[in-house]
Amino acid sequence: MKHILLVLGFLALTSCNSFKKAQRAANSGNYIEAMNRSISQLQRNKFNNKGRAYATLLKQSFENYRTISLERIRFLERETLVDNSKPVYENYVRLQNFQNRIRPLLPLEDVNRQPIDFEFYDFTENILVEKENYANYLYTKANDLIRTNDKMDSRLAYNSLVELEQLAPNFRNANNLKRQAYLNGVDYVLVSLHNDSNQVIPKQVEDRLLNFNTMNLDNLWTEFHVNARNDVNYDLAVDINFMELLFSPERLLERQVNLDRDVVDGWRYKKDRNGDFILDRRGNRIKEDVIINARGSLFETIQSKEVQVTAEVNYFDLNTDQKINSYPLESLFVFENRFASFEGNEKVLNEDEIFMLNNGPVPYPPNEKMINDASEEIKAKLKVILSRQLLSN
Questions:
Q1: Which end of the chain has fewer CB within 10 Å, C or N?
Q2: CB 273 within 8 A of CB 333
């Protein structure tokens, strides 16, 4: 019973706090929050005293909000600025939406159980007129921006046409204009790879590095082309220059590692100083590990080979014929194989040492395979460079 009373008390306190929040919002002029809170509560229960208090608050907030919104609309219309069409349209839409949300809640009563009358206006015609004005504004603005033949203006025009598409699909020839704005606003980047290292780069490595589809360089305003197209005027060029591919000799390192460790070698029952078995609380004998000292010699062999890749990624502005950025690109790929033999007590060996005993020598990879294996890391670093440049554009 006490638990039930606590829950009821908590719910009453929460309900009181919720109404106070709605009331504070209305008192501070935040009528939208006050209406949202009131509508939400009335949708749950409008027949108790709390619901009636919310109904009164809703009427006051709605009337104040409508008065302020209509005054704002009249002011914007008197300004006669074409870009005022958006706030005028949005104000009418919000007023109509709130009326549509309140209507299903009617009839409502105040705390004295007296009916609350809501006066609603029909804003349908206003919305249609202002929607047309807003659409014409976006269309005219986009047209004017496209005519400047400026890349950044074309991107702004594209954004306006996307907004127009959401507002009024299939408005005049807006779809064609949007396509034109996009084509005018895109940076076309021609990518090329140069090898000045005096080493052979396998064809599959070049193809992998130049496969931009797998890089996920999602950017609306940048298109990377590996093969130049005659119908495209390129804005930027990316030159990937491989300057050095340095291969180390095939190395073979042999070393002897002397092992001396205390290791577990089974278990036994624990005894006290008198030789009696030690028991736990249940009377069972307690076990303990048997520790021994194990020794041996591990004869380890390490095969290794490295390739050091040094490259440079240069960005050029083809419109001004100037280099605008340069990034170093370096990568080190290491081939390594370890195997070993052993003399002594094998209980001294850990898992890694046992693995080496089961391993053996392998052929050294040729240079072409080394470059191929290194290409994944090179491509990952290239992606970082390209992403950094995209952010700076």
A1: N
A2: no
